[in-house]
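Progress narrative, Year 2. Work on Remorin family protein from Glycine soja advanced from sequence curation to structure prediction during this period.
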Amino acid sequence: RMKALEDFQNKITAIDQIADGARTKAEESRRNEEQKTKEKAN
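Result:
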């Protein structure tokens, strides 16, 4: 019973870490796009 709970928590933690990484990457992409747009505007 404890083992199953532990496995579940480990999976949730891994998913959270992947989601955080994806979120960070998306924010970086958005910033890069904004920068390119600003450079084109100038």
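The first helix runs from residue 2 to 41. Residues 19 and 25 are 10 Å apart (CA to CA).
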